[in-house]
Every structure is written in C-alpha cells, then in structure tokens.
Design goal:
This protein is an alpha+beta fold and 218 residues long. It has a domain at 64-199: Exopolyphosphatase. Domain 2 (Nucleotidyltransferase, domain 5), CATH 3.30.420.150. Helix content is 45%, strand content 17%. It has nine helices and eight strands. Strands 1, 2, 3, 4, 5, 6, 7 and 8 form an eight-stranded mixed sheet that branches. Helix 4 (115-124) crosses helix 8. The protein is globular, with a radius of gyration of 18 Å. It starts with a strand and ends with a helix. The relative contact order is 0.18.
Length: 218
C-alpha cells in the first residue's frame, strides 16, 4: 500500500497518470489486488515522482492476494464459516503490518486496480456483461463492496461462473479478492473505491513510454 501526497503543481510539459486525482495536497492509497499478492504502488518510480513533485510517503507489499487466500483457506464450494474466518484473520493480520508501515490515515482516495476490483465493480453496477468503458473510473461504495463480497462467498462455483461480468479465469479466486478489498475498506474506513482498468504493469509501461518520449526530445 502506497500513500502519495501531491503538493507542488506539475511544471508545464510534465505528464501524470490519468487515473489519479492530482489536486494539490490530496493523498491517495493506490491498491492493486494481484493474483499472487495484494500490492499498492505509486504510479511511477520514486525518481520520476520526485521530478513531478509527487512524494511517496511509504509503501509496503503484503502476501494476501486472491490466489493466496483461495489456496490457503477457501476450499469449500461455497467456503465454510471456518474457512471464511481463517481467511479474514489472515487478511487482518497482514493489514496490521500495513498499518505499522504506511500512514493510511493520510489517504483520502482508495484506487483499486484491475482484476478482482473491476469484477466486483461490474457486479455491483449490475452490468449484464463486462464493459471496461463503464467500469473504468467508476466509484463503488463500501456498502456495495460488502454486499457483493458476501454474495460471492456464499455462492457455488457454478453460480459465480454464471455471472455475466465474470471472466472464466477469475471464477475460482474472486471470493478471496473481494474479501481482501472488503476488509481493506472496512479496516481503513474508505467509503468508496475508485476503480481503474489499468494495473501496475500498465503504470510501468506508461512510465517507460514517458521516459522514452522525453529522451527523444533532447
């Protein structure tokens, strides 16, 4: 989890990632639910953030991704109460580590990246099929995230697979991903999540493209 504080204005000609609200003195928590672990990173490397006037306060990566939670705990179809309790305890323990490493209270916006987050958003929005143009930059309330999470964790695999927005490769792990997002929002008091179709790899590619474009001008 990475908290950024945007203070100085960006000099003319400097690019910034379009998915992040860049108003002065606005802090962000940028969350990515990867298939192996839950990470939250800044959009660009530290040196580039420094050049653009964006200071990264702190970052930490914790090993609680949707695949990890499914492999460790969520074996039933649907998962049992004991399995859900074990997964929740595992996530909460990891969030204890986040709390000790990152000043999450400074974050005003939770940005959820791709995968589990976009799937939860599509379900919460009631979309009949996956529509990236509607999901990207949608805002989903904590109450809706909680409702979708409870529903997913109570469903069988067949029921999840029948959901219109569900990608076949996410059917088995969406419950774990949704639970992580739900626990983060409850733990840190986020009232909503800003959803992005772009993930960490997109951010890295974007940063490299900006660097190449800048180098070509000199």
């Amino acid at each position: 989890m990475d908290v950024e504080d945007d203070r100085p204005a960006v000099p003319a000609g400097r690019e910034r990632h379009p998915d992040v609200d860049r108003r002065p003195r606005r802090s962000h928590a940028d969350l990515g639910l990867a298939r192996k672990e839950a990470d939250a990173h800044a959009t660009r490397p530290a040196a580039r953030r420094e050049e653009a006037g964006v200071s990264a306060v702190q970052a930490v990566s914790v090993d609680i991704g949707c695949v990890r939670m499914t492999e460790r705990h969520l074996h039933g179809d649907p998962p049992s109460g004991a399995e859900l309790a074990a997964a929740t305890g595992d996530i909460d323990a990891a969030l204890d580590a986040v709390t000790g490493a990152v000043p999450v209270s400074q974050a005003r916006t939770l940005i959820g990246l791709a995968g589990s987050v976009t799937t939860v958003a599509g379900i919460a929005m009631g979309l009949p099929s996956y529509d990236a143009s509607r999901i990207h930059h949608a805002r989903v309330s904590a109450a809706d995230v909680h409702m979708v999470t409870r529903s997913l964790l109570a469903q069988t695999r067949a029921a999840r697979a029948a959901i219109g927005v569900m990608h076949p490769g996410r059917v088995d792990v969406i419950g774990g991903g949704a639970l992580i997002l739900d626990r983060i929002m409850q733990r840190f008091g986020f009232g909503e999540v800003l959803v992005s179709e772009h993930d960490i790899l997109d951010g890295i590619a974007w940063s490299l493209a900006v660097d190449m474009s800048r180098d070509a001008r000199y």
